[in-house]
């Protein structure tokens, strides 16, 4: 496949009036409407926007606000939303007192979400999870909920982990965790990894898009594949896919990818939040063609 090219219109969402927007999760409906769930730092809320082309986005609508009375979600961010039947299901990150947890909410209209439980559905328990579990990415396959999540430090996580659930609420963590860690031999992820999205792929099994950190303040977007989404990950030979660009709106870091294959255009598109100093907005990049087995390291 071709190399990823950043869109000339970047950033496509966010400015001084919105404040920092980050950690996007993009889906596309059967009728071609794009939905972007994202975190809005200005009011510590979760929000959604819609688009006909994935480039021009409508007004942000708040979907969930923090609940400081809970004791575990002074802040909410880093979430994913799935539509299953007539219900929208959200897994989100709650943060308080230096720790991060994963909560769960539902919605009938995809806009107004209500918490199903007052306590988290996933908490840090193991040494590799440190003080935080965050950035859930959930797939629903063959009646099973499958979650990939980041874990480790709260400022930026360190590893990727996996869990399964029959109902989306009670989760069983994999004994194989962490399923992916940094590779110090790779300059682009020598410090840590985090913030992933995983997608089924007809030839490769699953594609994992994730953040690679050269250091805790410098991030880029990477990709790996796995036959089952849990074991035997192989990194893309041309990692990183998207990197900071000197003098640009994303000069310091490119964070949390969300990717889709656009079949009618035979191309992949990645949405991500780029950082320049303290400002973070949303941009996109695209590459013609599809990923092939030979593109990945053996």
Structure, explained:
This protein is an all-beta fold and 298 residues long. It has one domain: Glycosyl hydrolase domain, family 43 (Tachylectin-2, Chain A), CATH 2.115.10.20. The protein has strands spanning 5-6, 21-28, 34-40, 45-51, 61-65, 75-84, 87-96, 99-107, 114-115, 132-141, 144-152, 159-165, 171-173, 192-201, 205-215, 218-226, 234-235, 253-262, 267-276, 279-288. 44% of the residues are buried. The mean pLDDT is 97.
Secondary structure elements and pairings:
Layout (H helix, E strand, L loop, with lengths): L4 E2 L14 E8 L5 E7 L4 E7 L9 E5 L9 E10 L2 E10 L2 E9 L6 E2 L16 E10 L2 E9 L6 E7 L5 E3 L18 E10 L3 E11 L2 E9 L7 E2 L17 E10 L4 E10 L2 E10 L10
Antiparallel strand pairs: 1-20, 2-3, 3-4, 4-5, 6-7, 7-8, 8-9, 10-11, 11-12, 12-13, 14-15, 15-16, 16-17, 18-19, 19-20
What is the gist of this entry?
This protein is mainly beta and 298 residues long.
* CATH architecture descriptor name: 5 Propeller
Largest sheet: 4 strands, antiparallel
CATH superfamily: Glycosyl hydrolase domain, family 43
SS strand fraction: over 45%
> Percentage of helical residues?
under 10%
Number of strands: 20
Q: Using only CA atoms, what is the Rg?
A: 18 Å
Helix/sheet category: mainly beta
**Unreliable spans:** none
The span between the termini is 17 Å
Which sequence of strands runs across the widest sheet?
1-20-19-18
Q: Name the shape in a single word.
A: globular
The CATH topology, please? Tachylectin-2, Chain A
Number of helices: 0
């Amino acid at each position: 496949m071709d190399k990823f090219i950043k869109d000339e219109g970047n950033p496509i969402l966010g400015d001084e009036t919105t404040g920092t927007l980050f950690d996007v999760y993009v889906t596309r409906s059967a009728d071609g409407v794009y939905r972007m769930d994202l975190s809005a730092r200005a009011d510590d809320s979760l929000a959604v926007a819609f688009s006909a082309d994935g480039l021009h986005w409508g007004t942000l609508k708040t979907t969930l606000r923090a609940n400081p009375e809970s004791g575990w979600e002074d802040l909410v961010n880093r979430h994913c939303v799935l539509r299953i039947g007539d219900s929208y299901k959200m897994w989100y990150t709650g943060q308080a007192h230096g720790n991060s947890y994963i909560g769960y909410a539902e919605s009938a209209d995809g806009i107004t979400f209500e918490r199903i439980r007052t306590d988290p559905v996933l908490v840090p328990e193991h040494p590799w999870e440190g003080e935080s579990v965050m950035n859930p990415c959930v797939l629903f396959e063959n009646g099973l909920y499958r979650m990939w999540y980041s874990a480790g430090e709260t400022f930026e996580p360190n590893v990727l982990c996996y869990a399964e659930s029959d109902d989306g609420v009670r989760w069983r963590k994999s004994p194989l965790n962490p399923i992916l860690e940094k590779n110090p031999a790779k300059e682009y992820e020598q410090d840590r990894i985090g913030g992933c999205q995983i997608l089924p792929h007809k030839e490769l099994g699953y594609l994992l898009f994730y953040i690679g950190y050269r250091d805790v303040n410098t991030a880029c977007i990477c990709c790996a594949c796995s036959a089952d989404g849990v074991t035997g990950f192989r990194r893309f030979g041309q990692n990183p896919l998207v990197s900071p660009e000197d003098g640009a709106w994303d000069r310091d870091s490119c964070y949390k990818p969300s990717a889709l294959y656009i079949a009618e255009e035979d191309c992949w598109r990645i949405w991500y939040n780029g950082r320049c100093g303290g400002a973070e907005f949303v941009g996109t990049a695209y590459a013609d063609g599809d990923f092939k087995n030979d593109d990945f390291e053996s």
